[in-house]
Amino acid sequence: MRSFVALAALGVLGAVLVVAVTGLEPFGHYPGPYGDVLAKVVPDERHTGQLVAATVFDYRAFDTLGEEMILFAAVCGCAALLRVLRSEHAGEGAPGRPVPSFAARAMAAALVGPVTVLGVYVIVHGHLTPGGGFSGGVVVAGALLLAYAGGQGLRLRRVGSITLLEGTEALGAAGFLALALAGLIAAGTLLKNFLALGTSGMLLSAGTIPVGNVAVGLEVAGAVALVFAEFLEQALLEDPE
Amino acid sequence: MSLLAYLVAVWLFVVGIYGVVTSRHLVHLVMCLSVAQASTYVLLLGIGYRKGGQAPIFGDIPTSTPVVDPVVQALALTDVVVGATVSALLLALAVQAHKRFGSVDPDELNALRG
C-alpha cells in the first residue's frame, strides 16, 4: 500500500521535474556568466589558476565558513550521540577479538607514511592543482584509519586519541574562523584575502587561499577520523562480553 | 540526448526518495537518502558543463582556454561534505535507535516509551 502511494506521488514529482529540466539550457551549452567572469578575473586578481579553490576559499568563502560550521556541529552531534554511557562499559579489546593478519598489518604499516604524505601534499597544493583541504583531509584521515586497522589494540579512548582528534577538528574550525576574522581586522572586510598574493604557481601564493586549505584540511581529517573512531567504539561495545 | 544528464539527476532523486519512503531498515534509509542527494551532484555538474571545456584549473593550460564552470564545482564540493556529515549524524541516530528500541525498522520506532 505504502509503495503504491509512493509510486503514484513520485511519478507525479518525477514528471514535473522532467518538464522542469527540459527548460534548462541543453547539456554542454553553459549559459554563464559567473564561471566565465571568474575565469577572466581570478588569475590576475588572486594569482592562482585554481578557480575552484579561489571560489571556495575566497570569492564564496562565506559559504565555506557556514559549511565548516555545519561540519563541526554535525560531528559534535555524532560525538554526543555515540558517547559511551556510564551504564555501558567500554570495550576492553577482548582477547577473543580477531587480530589483523600479518599481511594486513604489514600493508597498513607500509602505507601509513606514503598516504599521510599524499594527503598533506594534496592539502598544501590545493591552490595549484586539483584537491585541497577537503579531499586532502579525507586522505589524511584515511592514513589514521589505516593505523587503527593495522594496529593490534583498538582501545582508542585509552591512548587519548579521541581527545587528540577532537582537538584537531576544533583547531581546524577555529583556524578558519580566525582567518575570517583576521580579514576583518587587517583589511576591514570579513574573509578578505589580506595576505601577499605572491607569484602565481608558487607554493606560497594566492594569499589566504592555502591558509584556508590547511585549516579545512585539519578540520576534515579530525572530523572523519573522529566519526570513524566513535563508530568503532560502538562496535566494540556491542560485543557481548 | 542533450537532456540525458538532467534525466539521470531526476531519476536518482526519485528513486532515492522512493527508497526512503519504503525503507524497512534505518541504515538502508540513510543510503537511499545518499542516492537522492547524489542527484544534486549530477545536476550541478551537468549545468556547469561546457562542450570541450577543460577543468577550471589554469596550471598547464593557457588562461584563454574555455573551462567548465568552477562555481557549480565549488557548490558540489560543499554538497559532498554536508552530505557526508548528514549521513554520519543519521547513522549515529540509527545506532541510538537500535539501542533504545532494539530494532532498526522505522515502523517499529513509533511506540512511545515513558
Summarize the structure.
The complex is a heterodimer of chains A (241) and B (114). Chain A is mainly α and 241 residues long.
Please trace the helix and strand order of chain A, writing H or E for each element. Answer: HHHHHHHH
* Shape-level CATH architecture of chain B: Orthogonal Bundle
Summed up, the helix count of chain B is: 3
CATH fold call of chain B: Helix Hairpins
User: What's the gyration radius of chain A in Å?
Assistant: 23 Å
| Weakly predicted, low-confidence segments of chain A | none
The dominant shape of chain A is globular
Output the structural class of chain A: mainly alpha
Quaternary structure type: heterodimer
At the first level of CATH, the class of chain B is Mainly Alpha
Total number of domains of chain A: 1
Number of structurally distinct domains of chain B:
1
Strand content of chain A: under 5%
Helix content of chain A: 55-70%
Measured between the Cα atoms of the first and last residue of chain A, the distance is 42 Å
Low-confidence residue ranges of chain B = none
Number of distinct beta strands of chain A? 0
- Round the Cα radius of gyration of chain B to an integer and report it: 19 Å
